[in-house]
Amino acid sequence: MSSHPLGSRLVACVATVALAAVGHAQAQVAKPDPKLEGRYQAEGMNPDGQPYRSTVDIEPAGDTYLLRWIERDGRRAAVGIGIVRGEYLSVSYLAGRSLGVVVYHIGPGPQLKGQWTVLGADGGLWPETLSRAGVAAERLDAPSPPENGSAPPAPPARADALASARD
Description:
Blueprint (H helix, E strand, L loop, with lengths): L4 H18 L15 E8 L5 E11 L2 E7 L5 E10 L2 E8 L2 E10 L3 E8 L7 E7 L2 H7 L15 H10 L1
Antiparallel strand pairs: 1-2, 1-8, 2-3, 3-4, 4-5, 5-6, 6-7, 7-8
């Protein structure tokens, strides 16, 4: 076992995602579905009860998915990797220095309804729904992130709210 705190947190985060996937072990292993690929409008609840909105880009990567949460100002807020098992997408993510996990049920549309948490949340779970973004929503709410990668990743609103709720 690593004595470095980030090492312990990473192990805990990976274990959480693994347990979520095992919970649906009876479902067949699903290859990435190209219908999940695209831009989504995220709406959720922060630990302090305040709602938040951001944009999430989902793209297939081999047998996994890469997710990027993007704030309205175009900064990347979080990055994650996910796997599909049956009707569920389980994602571990890094937002600034916070590690977390979110498990979404894949519904029609597709619309993904899930719950998320971060290490240090003392067992708290908060809702987040991803809905396919339309052209108007993309223009108004989610400018594309800079191509040169110059913008540093910033924690999403949900991680900031957790930090302030704990202070």
